[in-house]
Structures are given as structure tokens and as C-alpha cells.
Specification:
Elements: H1 3-10, H2 29-43, H3 54-62, H4 72-86, H5 97-102, E1 127-131, E2 143-147, H6 148-154, H7 159-168, H8 177-195, E3 213-214, H9 217-229, H10 235-248, H11 253-269, H12 280-312, H13 315-320, E4 327-328
Antiparallel strand pairs: 1-2, 3-4
Helix pairs in contact: 1-2, 2-3, 2-4, 7-8, 9-12, 10-12, 11-12
Length: 329
């Protein structure tokens, strides 16, 4: 990190001496953030936004320190914080330029279109930071990078609203039915995490979650099976594990074998592996196997995930959200 980015980070409210002041005249956290964003935006040579809060505008105009253009993700993070305060919101400190860089892989997980960085003007392929669960706000684990087209279609819709559109199977709001299915799949893990629903729905893993996103247990199982079908996991050991869990649940092993055979064929036919789970025969076979083996699959996978989280000692996974979600890396 260069000096200006360090300076911008230091301008966040939690780093300000004012944040711990108990004086009745001390600025609120929101006012502190407005001032911090104003100073940092001026330092990063961003365009002045006359629609921003007055405290932001005043801090921007008053800034007299060094000015230098920052990299894309520093500017993106400042833009996100500015948009938040314009709406009366705060971006959680867990959302940093480094975190935005970490969760961006260059492709919109909903439209599967390559994102366009550093372009002038507005493009439907510009990256946009989306809150998966609106009630949670902008915090690590609840944000992902979508194209402008996908983000505008989602808007302020809840998971329930997106799921309703997805099940109708009709184009809507600029997205095709398969894209609504991907968005529904993408939102489900964060929704399940935020409201502690206990993975109540069995949904196709139509969108493979990127880094820094929560998944439900049933989604984790689908991801593991996807990697196995792609040849990314040791086949003999993995097949033995799943078959043993199937037998332990007093379910028939052929349910697993038939499901995996269908999944391998579907993945070989698809450019994007998530599309394989939208094959009707594949997901129906998965439902039959998962429901028959549920009582042994779920505890085993939960135990694996808990051990992995402890090994990584990931503060985002363990502290910022309630216990029970799955933070996918």
C-alpha cells in the first residue's frame, strides 16, 4: 500500500480520535465517515460530487494535502463509501480495496460476461458492488461484484423476490431466466446466513460462488461434487467418502453413482460448470441422493467446514457474522 492509500484508510471513522470521544459535540460516526470520504476522495483526485452530504463537500473543498490518482480498487472502494453516505448508510470497515480486489475475478457470476475495468463512461459491463442481503449492508461476506446490468436488475429485491422471478421462467428486468436462477443461487448463501434459516431450500448451484461469499451446506456439497466431476479432487478418496456416507444413511449407493455419472456428462457439455446443475436430470438425481443421505451428509460436511474455518483463522468467517454460515474462499 502506498502512503495515500494508508492515509485514506486512516481517515475511516474507526481510526479517528473523534470516534472515541464522549463529548456531546463530537460528530456522529456518520458525520465522521462523510468527512473521511471527502478528504480521501480529494486526496485520490476523484471528481467532486455536489450531491454528496454537506460534511463530505466541506471536507473535500478544505483538503490541501498531496493529491495522486489511486489504483482501480482504491477508487472503487471510495466510490462505494460515497454512494453509501449519499444514501445515509455506512460501509463496514471489513470492506477495503484489498477485499474488493480479492472478490473480483473479472466475470459477472450472473451474466457470465467479462467485466470492463477502467472504461470511461457507463457500460452495462462495468463492475458494480452489490449487497446480497439488503438488511445486512455493505460488509465482507454480503457483497459481490456484478455487472451493472445484473445489479440494476436486482436493485433492492430480496432473495424471496428474486426466487419468485426465477421460478417464473420468463425474461424480466433485463435478465434472462437462467440469469435470474444464477442470481437466486448467488443470494441464497448470504440469505441463509443472515437469517439463520438452516438451509431450508434445495437449490441448483447455478452460480459458482466466488471468493469471500457464504454458501449453505447443500451448496457446499454441490461445489465439492462439481470439483470432483471436474477432476480437481482425488477421485478414489472422494468417491469412497460419499459412498460411505450414503451407506451410513441406509441409502442406496446407486443413487450417488447415477447422480455423479449424469453430473460428469453435463459438466463436459457446459463451458460454465454451474450450468450443469440446471440440467433437470442432474438436479433431480442430486435431490434424490441428498434427501436420502441427508442425515449423515450434513453433519459430516458441517464438521469439515468448521475444522477448515478454524485452520484458516479467518476473522471474516468467524467474527463478523453469526456462527453457522459458510465463508467460501
Amino acid at each position: 500500500m502506498n502512503d495515500l492509500q494508508d492515509q485514506a484508510d486512516a481517515m475511516r471513522p474507526e481510526h479517528s480520535p473523534l470516534a472515541s470521544s464522549t463529548s456531546a459535540s463530537a460528530p456522529s460516526l456518520f458525520e465522521q465517515e462523510c468527512e473521511a470520504v471527502g478528504r480521501a476522495s480529494a486526496a485520490a483526485n476523484l471528481r467532486f460530487d455536489k450531491s454528496g452530504p454537506e460534511t463530505y463537500q466541506r471536507a473535500f473543498r478544505k483538503y490541501k494535502g498531496p493529491v495522486a490518482r489511486q489504483d482501480y480498487f482504491v477508487r472503487k472502494c471510495l466510490g462505494l463509501r460515497l454512494n453509501a453516505i449519499k444514501r445515509g448508510m455506512l460501509v463496514d470497515p471489513s470492506v477495503t480495496p484489498d477485499h474488493l480486489r480479492y472478490i473480483t475475478d473479472g466475470i459477472c457470476p450472473v451474466t457470465l460476461e467479462p467485466l470492463e475495468f477502467e472504461t470511461r463512461g457507463q457500460s452495462k459491463l462495468n463492475p458494480s458492488v452489490d449487497r446480497l442481503v439488503n438488511d445486512v449492508g455493505y460488509r465482507a461476506g454480503n457483497i459481490c461484484i456484478l455487472s451493472q446490468r445484473a445489479n440494476r436488475a436486482k436493485g433492492e429485491k430480496s432473495f424471496e423476490e428474486v426466487a419468485s422471478i426465477a421460478t417464473q421462467g420468463e425474461p424480466a428486468g433485463g435478465l434472462e431466466p437462467v440469469e435470474w436462477m444464477r442470481l437466486c443461487s448467488l443470494m441464497y448463501g448470504a440469505w441463509d446466513k443472515a437469517y439463520q434459516r438452516g438451509d431450508p431450500h434445495l437449490l441448483p448451484l447455478a452460480a459458482i460462488p466466488g471468493p469471500g461469499m457464504f454458501m449453505s451446506t447443500s451448496q457446499v456439497v454441490q461445489l465439492m461434487l462439481t470439483r470432483l466431476a471436474q477432476g480437481l479432487l482425488p477421485a478414489d478418496r472422494a468417491h469412497t467418502m460419499w459412498r460411505d456416507l450414503t451407506v451410513a444413511a441406509v441409502a442406496q449407493v446407486h443413487l450417488y453413482d447415477e447422480m455423479m455419472a449424469l453430473l460428469k456428462v453435463a459438466i463436459s457439455e457446459e463451458e460454465h460448470p454451474g450450468n450443469a446443475w440446471l440440467h433437470g436430470d442432474v438436479f433431480t438425481a442430486f435431490e434424490h441422493w441428498y434427501n436420502a443421505s441427508h442425515r449423515t451428509l450434513v453433519p459430516h460436511v458441517e464438521s469439515m467446514l468448521q475444522a477448515r474455518t478454524q485452520q484458516r483463522d479467518d476473522p471474516v468467517a468467524k467474527e463478523l457474522w453469526p456462527v453457522g454460515g459458510r465463508y467460501h474462499h
